[in-house]
Amino acid sequence: MDGDFCNDHFALIYESRSDQFAAIAPFIRQGLERGERCMYVVGEDEATEVRSALRNGGIDVDAALESGALVIETIENTYLKTGSFDADEMMDRYAEIIEEATADYEAFRLAAEMSWILEAEVSVEESMAYESKVNALFDDEDAIAVCQYDRDRFPPTVLRDVVRVHPHLIYDNTVCHNFYYTPPEEFCGPNQPRHELDRMLGTLLDRTEAKTELQERERYQQRQNEIISDPDSSFEEKLQDLFDLGSERFDLELGGMARVDPDDDRFELEYVSGDHNRFEPGVELPLSETFCALPAETGSTASVADPDVDGYADLESCREFGVRAYLGTYLEIDGGSDRAFAFVDSDARNEPFSDDEHAFLQSMGQWVKYELEQHHRERELERTIDRLEESNERLEQFAYAASHDLQEPLRMVSSYLQLIERRTGDDLSEELREFLSFAVDGAERMRRMIEGLLAYSRVETRGEPLEPVELDEVVEDVRENLQVRLDETDAELSVEPLPRVQGDGNQLRQLLQNLLSNAIKYSGETPPRIEVTAERDGTMWELSVRDEGIGIEDDARERIFDIFDRLHGREEYDGTGIGLALCERIVERHGGEIWVESEPGEGSTFSVTLRKAAPAE
């Protein structure tokens, strides 16, 4: 800390046995796994408890002891071997142990219980002097030590000094770099009070500056979030606000964004935040003659505090445009031109740009990159939609023209067939009469298909505006239209109260008439039983038509909505194969969906979603 070397000397301050071994067991286990010799120094009556705790911590204690990788020593055989404690003598003993251990093992690892200090009546001054000597001994050795202190047994004044003489602390299951650490020459020397005062004042100053810097960082981040989340500002307005914010944050005059292409060595200024006698949108330069070449090389952020010092004084942007300080980031745009987003100043800086400044610029750049890519995707989507709309319009025009123009020759064919039938009368043979009947029937089917195709092509172009429609009234109209068929088939039609929806009344009438006609047609051999219901789903209504007819196979449920696709032969069920395709097109025009749920032999339920009616003004 503060330029002092922090060696591997830890103080573990624990409040319970479980707290103690939660740190020491993994500490010893890590050493054994790394091929180090580990020594644990404990009181003679604690050795059994330590072995058990290490086993519970996942260590094969017996194997480690047998191999010599783990040594459990007693206080009496180390610190108090001569009957009393001598710090210099203990340092010599540890120096020998470290030399012996590192000759055969990767390193030496020590864990020592320090409660013996209290029982041996070692003074605080002696024990702290010893701990300071441990710092010196372990400084340049492949060795690491953890001294363990029971918080309940040691007085706070002692533990305070323990904290001061250990470069690292372990407390509450957390390893801490200790900024309260005092080097031995300061802690034990005659100027200890002065050094402690300097350290306290320095710590207060550092913490205050760090807190102020953090508050500043949070303030700028909050302002950035407010800018980019403003729903009422355009991209250009937000970009200008970010330029202003960045200029303030970095203390630089101008912000700008340019289109860049490293392969073509191209730089074209696109946006600039303020007035400048040379910098304005449209300015083009070789990219290699600008500072933006630096982030382009790394694909990240780059900065120049002083071009004379950093070796960039010959760049054109420096010579001709007067740029003396630069902070920029490279934006690789997916699907569009890459950009450089940067801030510049005509004066050099005394200090390099900080990591925080680089990080803040990068966060702004990430938003700009997202917005540019989003705009590109939106433009591509709009172009795709325009092309699709043009294509659909041409297809609709073609379908309408084809179906309209086909009707006249078809009417002529049908008229002449009927004229032949009347003129020839009984002169035709039975076979020719049958052929003529087939031809008339084919012409009629063709007419119905053309009419269906004409109706299909007109859904978008000839529809009425969507407005509130009472579905109850629509169903009553459909029931009246189908009354003859309902009576002939002895059908039972049950209709629940239906809602008011936003739609084209004529098209909704056609939709329901097709669905109910199908329910009657495909009822099978039993009289049709049809139920019409509606259920609210958020802003939509789900309208369902359920029957008990022949049903639909699983693999045919999607196919039935394809135009001219028929599941049954004409000898079974008549039709053009357009009805359900027309229903789907009508529903799509209304912004809803249509689907079917069915079991063969059990009936079908056709469901449609329609938007609820807009509230009356």
Automatic annotation (TrEMBL):
InterPro entries: GAF-like_dom_sf (IPR029016), HATPase_C_sf (IPR036890), HATPase_dom (IPR003594), His_kinase_dom (IPR005467), HisK_dim/P_dom (IPR003661), HisK_dim/P_sf (IPR036097), MEDS_domain (IPR025847), Sensor_kinase/Photoreceptor (IPR052162). Residues 401-614 form the Histidine kinase domain. It catalyses: ATP + protein L-histidine = ADP + protein N-phospho-L-histidine. CDD domains: HisKA. SMART domains: HATPase_c (SM00387), HisKA (SM00388). Its EC number is 2.7.13.3. It holds the Pfam family MEDS. It is an enzyme of class 2 (transferase). The keyword rRNA processing does not apply. Keywords: Kinase, Phosphoprotein, Transferase. One of its GO terms (molecular function) is phosphorelay sensor kinase activity. Gene3D superfamilies: 1.10.287.130, 3.30.450.40, Histidine kinase-like ATPase, C-terminal domain. The keyword Transferase applies. This is histidine kinase. It comes from Haloterrigena salina JCM 13891.
